[in-house]
Design brief:
Helices cover 29% and strands 26% of the residues. The chain folds into 2 domains: 2-123 and 291-309, no CATH class; 126-274, D-amino Acid Aminotransferase, Chain A, domain 1 (2-Layer Sandwich). The longest helix has 26 residues, at 27-52. With 310 residues, it is α+β, with helices and mostly antiparallel strands. It is built from 7 helices and 15 strands.
């Protein structure tokens, strides 16, 4: 199957060939894989029922240079938004730049002059995310490890590594392949660390995921619980306006942001931007997964309609 060709067995787990992300074998991994497969089947059932009823696609879309697998968020979103995925660019009404890599020296041109999504989002390294965040929000996430006094977070420039660790600064010889950021106290109660995962479609967030982690898993991708929350309950109008400006500046039409709110100063910090979002989080129930994807699909359908009219 095409799904399995994306991975190889290595070091007591599997490695995603394209990103290098390593997932260890565990009962939790087996459970999550089963949940993902179940959700994909649920979405396929919804799409099949629409096809039986004669529901026509609202548009056709071609992904380049690669087509997303079913475990990427955009796949169920297209199914639920009645957007047909086609292989031939000539058959497509729209194009979507889809490549699971952080950096290109320049945007990859679309196959035609038809409307395209994420075409300008060609550099999402953490240093770039931090720079654009500072330009838009007016305050900084980055610290200079040579001069900063106190604790900071050291992490990889690249996405999906989940290798953040707390270090004490100043540092005489910081690593050139790492970024150094402010240590954000993203707890609501001083104990549970919460990542406000923010899906964005056309600069708007239809809702947020509250991804909850224990202290020892603070910088991992392992959530002990995930909740859906109304976006206006977690982010102010001004913050949402700046998030829209950020996505425009980085060229992100569709994707996800990792947003942390600092318990000390009350401000939000965008620490990561992802243009090839996986999802929805496996810790969600099947009902909440479908609810989340329908919310994103409705937003994507509106964006598709808007681009088609332009």
């Amino acid at each position: 199957m095409a799904f399995f060709s994306d991975f190889e067995i290595s070091g007591g787990g599997i490695v995603a060939k394209e990103t290098g992300a390593h997932i260890r074998w565990s009962p939790e991994f087996a459970r999550d894989a089963l949940r993902i497969a179940s959700f994909i089947g649920l979405v396929q059932g919804v799409r099949a029922s629409r096809a039986v009823k004669g529901r026509e696609p609202r548009a056709s879309i071609c992904f380049y240079p690669k087509k997303p697998r079913s475990y990427y968020a955009i796949w169920p979103v297209c199914q639920l938004a009645d957007v047909k995925i086609v292989d031939d660019p000539a058959d497509a009404d729209l194009h979507f730049y889809f490549e699971d890599r952080e950096f290109r020296t320049a945007p990859l041109a679309a196959p035609s002059n038809r409307p395209a999504f994420n075409i300008g989002c060609h550099d999402i390294r953490k240093s770039v995310v931090s720079r654009i965040f500072e330009e838009v929000f007016g305050y900084t996430l980055m610290v200079d490890p040579h001069t900063h006094k106190g604790l900071a977070v050291e992490k990889s420039e690249l996405n999906g590594k989940h290798d953040g660790r707390i270090v004490s600064c100043p540092i005489d010889a910081p690593r050139h392949d790492r970024v150094y950021q402010r240590l954000v106290d993203n707890t609501f109660n001083g104990r549970e660390f919460i990542d406000i995962r923010t899906p964005v479609v056309g600069g708007k967030a239809p809702f947020v995921y509250l991804k909850r982690r224990t202290r020892d898993l603070r910088f991992s991708n392992d959530n002990h619980r995930v909740d859906l929350a109304p976006v206006d309950a977690m982010l102010s109008k001004d913050e949402l306006s700046k998030i829209a400006d950020f996505t425009h500046a980085i060229g992100l039409d569709f994707g996800g942001l990792d947003v942390l709110r600092d318990r000390e100063d009350g401000r939000i910090y965008i620490v990561d931007a992802n243009k090839t979002d996986m999802g929805p989080p496996s810790a969600l129930s099947a009902q909440d997964k479908l609810k989340a994807m329908r919310g994103i699909a409705d937003a994507f359908a509106s964006l598709v309609d808007e681009r088609m009219k332009a």
